[in-house]
């Protein structure tokens, strides 16, 4: 005999907080494309009984996320490189991480596709299974083709009109009408080219990093940039990493003598924005 199913009456007034409160806690633990849907739903359904998971999640996120980011900016390598050097059988830790990511990724992506397909079904009455395949194939096509920027630019239509620089460092350089490659020049020639460049609207860059040229004083070129760390040599084989993690003004000789070399020696190109004609000296 089937039991009668009844939909509970929706809470009113301050009672609403008892329902959405756990959802807000889960949402605050971490914000991302999946967490906005999955974490809020978890809190709304399970309530405060899973509050312990939030505490564990925050601790793990601090250890893995923040620790991994600091390790990368200070050493210049990813955490996978560190895992590959853990004592024991070669790359055993890498394989453990890979298998865990496959399992967790499959569950997370499957949950996102399920939620998205239900939403799409409410708009166009196709089977959620069909919508799930459509959304999955569309996501694969976007990632495979590398055209995610198209979606990002479409979304920017809803923002204020005006000129906006790309957040990607390489695309920021290419957005300039005047890009000068410097890889084939020696240090003195690079400094000479910079001395002819306008202050404030000249971007100096190498893969993964960009800087704003401030000008020269007493023969020294200065820049302003966001720097997480820089290195100085202890001896021929060893460097010391100095953590900054802030916007700083420095000269282009920062890092001189270290394994990676001074900034001026690592620069690959400069970009000049605005209507400016570079004059050769």
Kindly describe this structure.
By secondary structure, the chain is of the alpha+beta class. It has three domains: 13-76, no CATH class; 92-164, no CATH class; 169-272, endopeptidase fold (from Nostoc punctiforme) (Alpha-Beta Complex), CATH 3.90.1720. Helix content is 48%, strand content 17%. The protein contains ten helices and six strands, in the order ααααααααβαββββαβ. It has helices at 15-29, 35-46, 51-75, 79-83, 92-123, 128-145, 148-155, 169-174, 187-195, 263-266; strands spanning 178-181, 202-206, 209-217, 220-233, 239-251, 269-272. The chain has a six-stranded antiparallel beta sheet. Strand 2 (202-206) and strand 3 form a beta hairpin. The model is unreliable at 157-163 (pLDDT under 50).
Summarize the structure.
It is built from 10 helices and 6 strands; from the N terminus they run H-H-H-H-H-H-H-H-E-H-E-E-E-E-H-E.
**Count the strands?**
6
Supply the CATH class of the largest domain: Alpha Beta
CATH superfamily of the largest domain: endopeptidase domain like (from Nostoc punctiforme)
Q: Indicate the mean pLDDT.
A: 76
CATH topology (fold) name of the largest domain: endopeptidase fold (from Nostoc punctiforme)
Shape: elongated
* Oligomerization status of the protein chains: single chain
Q: Look at the helices and sheets and give the structural class.
A: alpha+beta
Gyration radius, in Å:
26 Å
């Amino acid at each position: 005999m089937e039991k009668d199913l009844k939909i509970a009456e929706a809470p009113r007034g301050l009672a609403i907080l008892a329902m959405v409160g756990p959802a807000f806690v889960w949402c605050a633990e971490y914000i991302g494309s999946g967490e906005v849907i999955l974490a809020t739903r978890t809190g709304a359904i399970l309530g405060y009984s899973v509050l312990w998971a939030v505490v564990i999640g925050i601790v793990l996120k601090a250890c893995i996320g923040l620790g991994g980011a600091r390790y990368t900016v200070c050493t210049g390598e990813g955490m996978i490189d560190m895992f590959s050097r853990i004592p024991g059988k070669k790359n055993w830790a890498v394989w453990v991480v890979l298998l865990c990511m496959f399992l967790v990724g499959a569950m997370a992506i499957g949950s996102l596709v399920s939620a998205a397909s239900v939403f799409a079904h409410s708009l166009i009455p196709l089977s959620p299974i069909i919508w799930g395949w459509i959304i999955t194939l569309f996501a694969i096509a976007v990632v495979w083709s590398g055209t995610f920027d198209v979606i990002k630019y479409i979304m920017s239509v809803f923002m204020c009109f005006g000129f906006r620089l790309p957040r990607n460092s390489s695309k920021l350089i290419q957005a300039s009408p005047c890009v000068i490659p410097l890889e084939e020049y020696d240090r003195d020639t690079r400094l000479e080219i910079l001395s002819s460049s306008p202050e404030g609207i000249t971007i100096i860059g190498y893969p993964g990093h960009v800087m704003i040229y401030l000008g020269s004083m007493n023969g020294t070129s200065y820049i302003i940039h966001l720097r997480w760390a820089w290195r100085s040599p202890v001896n021929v084989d060893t460097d010391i990493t100095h953590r900054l993690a802030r916007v700083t003004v420095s000269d282009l000789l920062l890092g001189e003598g270290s394994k990676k070399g001074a900034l001026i020696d690592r620069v690959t190109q400069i970009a000049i924005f605005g209507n400016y004609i570079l004059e050769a000296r």
